[in-house]
Amino acid sequence: MGESTSCNTSNRAACIVTCEACIEDCLKAGTPAHLACVRACRDCIDACTLADRMEARSSPFAAQAAALCADACEACAKACDAAGCHGCATACRGC
Question: Which residues have CB under 8 Å from 83's CB, separation 6+?
Answer without folding.
Answer: 26, 29, 31, 33, 34, 36, 37
